[in-house]
Amino acid sequence: MLRIAAGGSVNPLRPAILAAAGSARVKRLLTAAPVTAEIVSRFVAGEGRADLVPVARELLSSGRAISVDFLGENTVDREQAENAVAEYLALINDLAALDAARVRAAAPLEVSVKLSALGQALPGDGPAVATENLHTLCTKAGQAGVWVTVDAEDHTTTDATLAAVRQVRPEFPWLGSVVQAYLRRSEADCRELAAAGARVRLCKGAYREPEAVAFQHADEVDASYLRCLEALMRGAGYPMVASHDPRMIAAAARLTSVTGRRAGDVEYQMLYGIRDDEQRRIAADGQTVRVYVPYGNQWYGYLMRRVAERPANLRFFLRALAQR
Questions:
Q1: Residues tagged in the binding site annotation for substrate
Q2: What is d(CA 250, CA 238) in angstroms, rounded to the nearest whole number?
Q3: Annotated catalytic, 151?
């Protein structure tokens, strides 16, 4: 079992920030503030596909793969879900037209999708609607040579999300899942997914969750991440190491060596706007690096989760506000 030194880069204000993120008043204040545009541009590639494409092209030209997320969550009616599907279909077309020849990856182009955006929370048959919409996206993506990964959301959706992936994945074996290490259930999920040969993005977790279902302390989350990572590395699937933590990246490199995996059997993933130099370093070392690139006008929840995750992001946020 891998062990790491204590002392991760965890934001002690994370619970307070995530709580504030749920406040309608805070949302109104931040979305109306002129300085917010500067902050958003650090982490989000614009509001439309026309903004996204130049960002995607630059990342691909630097040898990095991409996973693009259209920011939309908590769809409340079928029309919204249909609009999200239409946007993703157009996005897949745009991505397929990009030149990704410089990227060392089995599939340089990927989209990430939240099932809540595809209708999972609709009353009655929401899960079935989302699963059908996911199948539609995978059909188009498969024709275009683009991968799809289903994002994780809060713990109340985990079972339904994994069930949808299990239903669709037999037809599209490259369909990926996301596991959040701070959930107490995640090691078991990783073992199951690894045994099935699945692609799995392992992240620490970004939502506010109760102690009954999620680890609350940094050392517990780190230990869970390492257990999950080892399960994935020793399994038959394709691990995607989604972390900016140098200790987790180093642990992944050690496990890659110990388990006999080749560079193309694992990839590292980081968020757009965070640790760009490290992304370039890992890619230059011959590893696959995939950058998670969000776009869209529903950026508020995404931005607040990024600010809550790391002290460095909070410092950037506060500096921008202070310079008004």
A1: 114, 305-306
A2: 18
A3: yes
